[in-house]
Amino acid sequence: MLTVDFDRLGLQPGDRVLDMGCGAGRHAFEMYRRGADVVAFDQDGDELAGVLELFGAMKEAGEVPDGAQADIKQGDALSLPFADGEFDRVVAAEVLEHLHDDVGAITELVRVLRPGGTLAVSVPRWLPEVVNWRLSDDYHNAEGGHVRIYTDHELIDKVTKAGAPNDGGPGTAMAYEGRGYAHGLHSPYWWIKCAVGVTNDDHPAARAYHRLLVWEIMKQPRALRLAGRVLDPLIGKSLVLYFRKPVRLGSPTGG
After folding, report:
1. Is residue 184 helix, strand or coil?
2. What DSSP designation does 78 have?
3. pTM higher than 0.85, yes or no?
4. What three-state secondary structure class fits 138?
5. In CATH, what number does 6-124+145-183+236-244 get?
6. Does the keyword Transferase apply (predicted)?
């Protein structure tokens, strides 16, 4: 279940890419499958162990192009253990809403992205998230839960200002390139969960809708794909923003 559009990100075989806050690895796996040199980064060592195991299984099964590489790295989003400009593409999917110092994390994402490189950031969309918060305190008060609700404008402002010099002179402020929405079928599921209890997985409505989502993910029936296309721009659970790091005079360029 991918949130980021990798064609829109400009991902190419051989690109060095960072999946920051990779979780179980869904985006890292797809980038590896497309021939990228992937680093899956997270704080959770157990999650990373599972990601590394599946990287190996993908290679053994011949699911990745020759030359593609993938590895894991554990650490803190506020102090990424990578050099300035190390990555061609950076992805941070459903991460920033969990971090108290989101500006610090965004600054690090911009730092490790090369001039001319692209960044995709996804967070829960404002309207579906507001509904969840109003229906259930447990939804966002859980340990490691969401600490803020973003508007499009707020997140665009935070990312485009990252890396800009304090003196207002020419710098590397990020260029906003557009947005998308994803997982329109998933918003009603979370509204149901918040209404009946976020841990009440046995509630008939929650169980029935969960089966629908499993069917969508596993079988991708045409009717649900069409429904998703209609619902994504209306109530898509995830907002995805795309940015490019400008190239300074004298810096190497790239696609």
Report:
1. coil
2. T
3. yes
4. helix
5. 3.40.50.150
6. yes
